[in-house]
Amino acid sequence: MQQAHNDEVDDESAKSLGIAKRTGHENDSTVISADEVDGLVATRHPDGLAESMKAGRNAHRHEKRAAERRLRVEKNGHLPSQRTLEEVVQLADTYPTSFSLGTLKAAHGAYTALPNRSLRGGIPNRKREYSVDELVSHYGFTEVSWNGHDPMVLADGEGNIWGVLAGQPSDPSFAKAANDALAFITKKSNEAGLTGHAEEHLRGDYHAFNVGYTYGNGGQTPSLRDNGKYNQMLQDIMQNVDVQRLLTYASVLEKASFQLWAPRLYQYYKEHMKSLYELLNVPPFFPRSVYPSAAFNLGGRVRTYVHRDTMNLPFGWCCVLALGNFDPDVSAKLILWDAKLIIRFPHGSTIFLPSASVTHSNSPIRAGDYRISITQYAPGGLFRWVDNGGRTEKELKEEDPDLYEKRQSEKETRWKYGMTLLPTWKECQARV
Description:
The chain is α+β, with helices and mostly antiparallel strands. It has helices spanning 11-17, 34-44, 49-76, 82-91, 132-139, 172-191, 231-239, 241-251, 258-261, 263-280, 380-387, 393-399, 401-410, 414-420, 425-430; strands at 93-96, 142-144, 152-155, 161-167, 207-214, 223-224, 293-298, 318-325, 334-336, 341-343, 350-353, 360-362, 370-377.
């Protein structure tokens, strides 16, 4: 027999049998066990109602367990299983670098990065196409021939992980989802006339659309981005089941999980985004992703200029997904200028990197190749607004001077604190 609280008979079931509902008092003559109910049902309703009653009780148990899981997810997120941790960490390779994220600087307060005019690395022309051969021979870069599947962590000499080549699962259904997502996005963007190059902007000359929440430019509260006549196209893309799987995979599920690799940083995002949505009284922008914003880079010729995404949280990780019909041995390799790395970046693969602080770009795209990308990210201004209790700094200073002074003092140490949220390779190994 199951435990008593799982075997109680509901009101409707008791009424149909002509018995009293279980009261919970063991000496009460009206108490009837689940097994006794089954016997009564079989006697009075020999037409199969007994099986129906059992199914109803099983459904109740499933609902209860599902509710418990939802509470755990709300508190901790989708925790990776121990089996997944062991499989991923044991499969992962480390790529030691002489570069350390902690040696860089953020803007004062560490809610945003330094502006792009302060680009480092001796870059002669940030818009120019740099070939792999040129970067290797003239600038001392190293090629990383990543297969796009098995995870590889980018760590400094002390084992501090500053980026992860997360890869993609070996599950054939994921590969199909990536292909189907590509086909759907291509169809939608072609229908909208978004092909080839676009008007030049900070990051390149491709069609770029940012969706989700943003904050800044004099606004009093965070707001959703408006892409005008392209809103419906973007909504259709985001609601596509294959696109949703790719976005979810990057944040909370399977082997690429942000939470799996950087649990402290993930929790920092999760707590702030939970507060953001509560303060705004809105549901999460992406129901199963911790990120509040994303960039859809379309048109098939997506190659970024040398840049940093300076408005993102500077110690945070953005999540980049490459999609397309292109040769990753030739086209659109990821170039990390501070670390002097050139990384092969195949279709369907995911990479986490601190895009606000680390200077990056892509190698040229071969004629005839087609490449797009989706980047999930979190603007740093959202974290500041949440830390201020849903207020601008001016409002905070006027309404709560003590908290204002506290937040001002925290600006001096936030960058260093952000470094403590990043994982280490030793920690990853200890978890398995």
